[in-house]
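Hi V.,

Quick status before I head out on leave. The structure for the redesign project is tokenized and pasted below; the design run finished overnight.
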């Protein structure tokens, strides 16, 4: 049975324990729009949003919470070495060039462009589920969380294109 990330968040004492629990699932958890709404409600139970005196650190924490889940779903079909490199790529723009080089250096001969296409397709599917979330704070956290991932995929595509000239500018990501 697949874990519910909302339950993991409720059980976790902090964001790092939640991240570890999600990573341990290897992407094997439900993450459709209903699951996203449940996670968003769990987050808002712990960090209620307010119009006045908004706590921007809690808002950023919500974006991070979303990215943790999305990244694990994006990389679930990759092998262990590639997963770790993609985790770094999708969390740190400065790591992209070194990670791209490391992807090309892996001994299996698999083109990193294939991994990019898999990850970009997964992101498009997740974005479709996010679009189904009703307007409100939960959707806002998911939109904020997913936006930086599009930027990182763009950087990844640019660095891959230096090695693979036929990787088209619009290949894969929105």
């Amino acid at each position: 049975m697949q874990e519910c990330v909302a339950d993991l968040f409720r059980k976790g004492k902090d964001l790092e324990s939640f991240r570890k629990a999600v990573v341990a699932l290897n992407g094997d958890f439900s993450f459709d729009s209903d699951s996203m709404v449940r996670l968003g409600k769990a987050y808002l139970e712990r960090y209620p949003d307010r119009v006045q005196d908004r706590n921007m650190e809690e808002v950023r924490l919500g974006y991070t919470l979303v990215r943790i889940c999305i990244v694990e779903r994006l990389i679930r079909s990759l092998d262990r070495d590639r997963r770790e490199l993609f985790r770094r790529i999708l969390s740190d723009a400065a790591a992209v060039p070194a990670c791209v080089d490391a992807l090309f250096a892996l001994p299996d001969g698999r083109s990193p462009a294939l991994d990019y296409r898999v990850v970009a397709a997964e992101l498009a599917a997740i974005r479709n589920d996010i679009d189904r979330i009703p307007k409100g704070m939960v959707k806002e956290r998911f939109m904020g969380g997913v936006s930086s991932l599009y930027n990182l995929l763009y950087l990844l595509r640019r660095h891959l294109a230096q090695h693979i000239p036929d990787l088209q500018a619009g290949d894969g990501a929105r």
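Above is the designed sequence. The chain is about 65% helix and 0% strand.

G. will cover questions while I'm gone.

Best,
W.
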